[in-house]
UniProtKB/TrEMBL annotation:
Organism of provenance: Paraphaeosphaeria sporulosa
Top EC category: hydrolase
InterPro entries on file: Alpha-L-AF_C, ASD1_cat, GH, Glyco_hydro_b
Family: Belongs to the glycosyl hydrolase 51 family.
GO molecular function terms noted in the UniProt entry: alpha-L-arabinofuranosidase activity
Name of the protein this chain belongs to: non-reducing end alpha-L-arabinofuranosidase
């Protein structure tokens, strides 16, 4: 258990870590990425033919290197909202035959010069697994089955042969497939009611699993705490729901997708907003249990996990999607991202995957220009988490003052605490403890008694800056990682508006 006890503002905070109390395995896939045909994510982001920084495939080498540094295990593609009018066949085969199409999610033009085979090749170079999202807008089940066959089949069938004809003999073995994206959203091409979506998702899921039973299917949820989430889970959680037969001992859907973006103009409302995302995981997880209980799903059917396949700080008014959503992230946003990630570690038991939206240029930690790459403030905590917060999550008890002002959304205040010290801990498979601490207070450093830390050499990684509004640009990197060490004796000072990762051999 991770617990928080509020103390007076002038009290002495403490953190107790229990290295021998593992809570749950942290799924590596929580460090997933997302590349959508949107703004400069694909074109000018990962794919930039003609640029001297690109390889013979037109892939930006600096982007590939950054993805490798981040050790991104899985990348979602091709949308997002984009997918609602995407026909995958437009993006395969000789480039000169590929049609240009109007693009209705972001009101652009899709040249289709980058498609399935290019994405798969890019994933292989990066060393990451592909995760494909199906077109639930203008797409058909036939098309979806064709895409699955193209990617995964070894048989002598039409789409498998088309893949061979396009130069790829071996199947791509794409494991993760999403049953649409944000189908509930009024901005969606062919928005669906929850009833219509559930019917369609159930039928598509059945057919897709008949073609390839090894795939992991991801249901389109909403925020994790809506009636849509409850309804679609209840209708689709297992084969047997509609009494249509199927094998009750197998799951029909394996994961439930949720999306949460946060943002606020004021630092503390901004930095504590991701506490709502953590609450969303808890609520979605309860809905999964409820759907299983109501449907009498046998315990032998593995429990569905949550696929948090879009998360980040994003204010769509400040950085509109139609203009490429190029957010400029501040130190406050980096602290918000730390709180998101701490929440993922604390809720590791329920989280099967999470994908930062997005990987390049669009609401992203990484921004390309023609001469290189800028690592925004949010890159740095993300990098530290991905490097060190793997293995198992570990129990922590935190005593600290709490921020008691306005939250965004307001319901956070009533449902989950908002400590100034936001903490999570993990132990890696080789026995390294990592303690992640975000001090959200913009005025006050905290001297904290850290119990459970081993005296000796504790490595210290700090992300901070002059004030919460600082940002990185191509000319100046104001926020990065500072490395130092601590002997583990006495109190540790967590500086104001900072993120710190302490690491020691347990
Ligand atoms: O990530 C940007 C957009 O946000 C995605 O296309 C969509 O799914 C969400 O609304």
């Amino acid at each position: 258990m991770t617990s928080f006890t509020r103390i007076a503002d002038e009290g002495s905070p403490s953190i107790i870590v229990h290295p021998d109390h593992k809570i749950a395995k942290i799924n590596d896939n929580i460090y997933g990425g997302f590349t959508e045909h949107m703004g400069r994510c694909i074109y000018g982001g990962i794919y930039d033919p003609g640029n001297p920084l690109s390889d013979e495939n037109g892939f930006r080498k600096d982007v590939i290197d950054a993805m490798k540094d981040l050790n991104v295990p899985v990348v979602r593609y091709p949308g997002g909202n984009f997918v609602a009018t995407y026909h995958w066949l437009d993006g395969v085969g000789p480039r000169e035959n590929r049609p240009k199409r109007p693009e209705l999610a972001w009101l652009g033009l899709e040249p289709n010069t980058f498609g399935t085979d290019e994405f798969m090749k890019w994933c292989e170079i990066v060393g990451t697994e592909p995760y494909l999202c199906l077109n639930f807008g203008t797409g058909t089940l036939d098309e979806a089955l064709g895409w699955l066959e193209y990617c995964n089949s070894t048989q002598d069938t039409y789409y498998a042969n088309l893949r061979r004809k396009n130069g790829r003999e071996e199947p791509y073995n794409v494991k993760y497939w999403a049953l649409g994206n944000e189908c509930w959203g009024p901005w969606q091409v062919a928005q669906l009611t929850k009833e219509d979506y559930a019917k369609k998702a159930y039928q598509w899921a059945k057919a897709l699993k008949l073609l390839d039973p090894s795939i992991v299917l991801i249901l389109c949820g909403e925020t994790g705490y809506s009636s849509w989430d409850y309804y679609v889970l209840k209708e689709c959680v297992t084969w047997s729901v509609h009494g249509l037969g199927g094998d009750r001992t197998k799951s029909l859907i394996d994961m439930h997708s949720i999306h949460v973006y946060t943002a606020d103009k004021e630092h503390l409302a901004n930095a504590t907003a991701p506490r709502g995302a953590e609450r969303a995981i808890q609520m979605a997880s309860a809905l999964i249990d409820l759907a299983r209980i109501e449907n009498g799903v046998p315990e032998t059917v593995p429990r569905q996990t949550i696929c948090f396949d879009e998360w980040n700080v994003w204010d769509p008014i400040r950085a509109p999607g139609e203009l490429g959503a190029e957010e400029k992230y501040t130190l406050s946003d980096a602290l918000a991202v730390s709180v998101f990630l701490n929440g993922f570690i604390r809720q590791a038991k329920d989280l099967g995957m999470a994908n930062i939206a997005q990987s390049i240029n669009v609401i992203s930690p990484l921004m390309t220009n023609k001469d290189g790459i800028v690592k925004q403030t949010i890159w740095w905590p993300l990098l530290l988490f991905s490097k060190y917060m793997r293995g198992h999550s570990v129990a922590v008890n935190v005593r600290a003052p709490e921020y008691t002002g306005r939250t965004n959304p307001a319901w956070i205040r009533a449902t989950i605490e908002t400590p100034y010290l936001d903490v999570s801990a993990s132990i890696s498979d080789d026995g390294h403890m990592s303690l992640a601490v975000a001090n959200l207070n913009e005025e006050k450093a905290f001297d904290v008694k850290v119990e459970g830390v081993k005296k000796g050499e504790v490595k210290v990684y700090t992300v901070d800056g002059e004030n919460v509004d600082v940002a990185n640009t191509a000319d100046e990197q104001k926020v990065g990682i500072k490395e130092s060490s601590w002997d583990g004796v006495g109190k540790f000072r967590f500086g104001k508006h900072s993120f710190t990762l302490l690491r020691w051999k347990a």
